[in-house]
């Protein structure tokens, strides 16, 4: 009764287009009032306790780093370098978009930040060169989904914070799957370029490639410093987020000189708004998750799964299907806070490697960013491209199919996500 009321209320509020954070909060409060004897005075302390985490500090700092890089000339230089390398291949601008998103993913860890930064530069360029608006929007949204898979990853930070797993190992677990997804998207884009006869650029000379590399050098160095510092034990994930902010500020203001103090104020306001939204979602989602734990949902699901089947392959398939459905209706951060504690119990009971399972969970939840009705990444790219949603969905199908294939590969080939973490042992 309690779970039915809570999920039913949440679904109704989401259908009524109430903002995710408020929908989760209201459904939680209604459930507490109607079906439990838990006092409402515990809600605020519980929310504050969730956010009172040193690890969670990484989220606003990584988002700030992404905003600085978007406005400080870093994303533009990465795009120019990628285009000089790949522009001459059929569908070159699309390849450059995927390449740039992958590099940018190694800096911010946020899908929305990556998509906005890269899309604001690449989508107008693709449309100008004759790419269908819907195609440009679909490609960029799926490329942006690489962001939370390649380290550093905000979802992995949340996963580590909630389960106690090593965040460094979680970061490494997503590296190979993220690269596999990027390569797969490039292949799909190449096939799409042939099908739709998309244009390509004149092959850049070695001098042009070299000059674009020099111009992008400091930007390319950012993920090396951030990820390398974490893996070498020089700083934690939270400290790495601060390093990312400082590094991006220095190169944007004093090396590239494209970010003024006046612009910095606007960037800070933008990053603050985004961070508040994300952290508020995390806070309300923690109450939702608290109720699930109080109702012993993890234990109930584990018992049900064991009664239904003990085959780990079938259990993994069920988890993937459920997560894909969850990702379609609940925002990624909220879904992570609510369901990761539940899923961690299932993983342990089923004998899955925790880092392998975490990677599968992360990729499945990220898919929600490119699927209706939530589809945050699609809304970002559609807005930039000024494309019709139905056109974007038509072009999205092959890219989305590729992502599903990657999910199945990661789910059933654990080595893809366990090899690199194993090197740290």
TrEMBL record:
KW DNA damage (keyword) present: no
Entry GO CC: plasma membrane
Segments traversing the membrane: 47-68, 135-159, 171-192, 213-234, 240-256, 268-293, 313-346, 358-380, 392-413
UniProt keyword annotation of Protease present: no
GO molecular function annotations of the record: transmembrane transporter activity
Keywords, in A-Z order: Cell inner membrane, Cell membrane, Membrane, Transmembrane, Transmembrane helix
Pfam families tied to this protein: DctM
Protein name, entry field: C4-dicarboxylate ABC transporter
Protein source organism: Salipaludibacillus neizhouensis
């Amino acid at each position: 009764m309690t779970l039915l009321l809570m999920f039913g209320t949440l679904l109704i509020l989401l259908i009524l287009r109430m903002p995710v954070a408020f929908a989760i909060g209201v459904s939680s409060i209604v459930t507490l009032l109607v079906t439990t004897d838990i006092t409402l005075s515990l809600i605020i302390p519980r929310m504050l306790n969730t956010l009172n985490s040193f690890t969670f500090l990484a989220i606003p700092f990584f988002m700030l780093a992404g905003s600085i890089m978007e406005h400080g000339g870093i994303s533009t230089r990465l795009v120019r370098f990628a285009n000089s390398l790949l522009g001459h291949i059929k569908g070159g601008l699309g390849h450059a978009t995927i390449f740039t998103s992958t590099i940018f993913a190694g800096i911010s860890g946020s899908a929305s930040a990556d998509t906005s930064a890269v899309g604001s530069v690449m989508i107008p360029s693709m449309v100008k060169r004759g790419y269908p608006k819907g195609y440009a929007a679909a490609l960029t949204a799926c490329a942006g989904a690489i962001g939370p898979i390649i380290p550093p990853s905000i979802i992995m930070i949340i996963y580590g914070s909630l389960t106690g797993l090593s965040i460094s190992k979680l970061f490494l677990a997503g590296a190979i799957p993220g690269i596999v997804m990027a390569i797969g998207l490039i292949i799909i884009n190449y096939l799409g370029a042939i099908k739709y006869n998309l244009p390509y650029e004149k092959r850049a000379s070695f001098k042009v490639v070299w000059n674009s590399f020099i111009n992008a050098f400091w930007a390319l160095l950012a993920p090396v410093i951030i990820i390398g510092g974490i893996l070498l034990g020089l700083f934690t994930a939270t400290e790495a987020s601060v390093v990312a902010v400082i590094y991006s500020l220095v190169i944007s203001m004093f090396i590239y000189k494209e970010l003024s103090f006046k612009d910095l104020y606007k960037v800070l306001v933008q990053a603050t708004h985004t961070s508040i939204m994300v952290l508020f979602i995390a806070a309300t989602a923690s109450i939702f998750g608290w109720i699930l734990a109080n109702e012993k949902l993890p234990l109930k699901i584990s018992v049900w799964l064991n009664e239904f089947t003990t085959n780990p392959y079938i259990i993994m398939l069920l988890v993937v299907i459920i997560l894909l459905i969850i990702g379609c209706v609940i925002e990624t951060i909220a879904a992570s806070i609510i369901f990761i504690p539940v899923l961690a119990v299932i993983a342990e009971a089923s004998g899955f490697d925790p880092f392998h399972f975490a990677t599968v969970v992360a990729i499945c939840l990220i898919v929600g960013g490119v699927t209706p009705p939530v589809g945050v990444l699609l809304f970002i790219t559609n807005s930039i491209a000024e494309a019709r949603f139905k056109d974007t969905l038509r072009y999205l199908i092959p890219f989305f199919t590729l992502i599903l294939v990657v999910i199945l590969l990661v789910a059933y080939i654990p080595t893809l996500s366990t090899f690199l973490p194993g090197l740290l042992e």
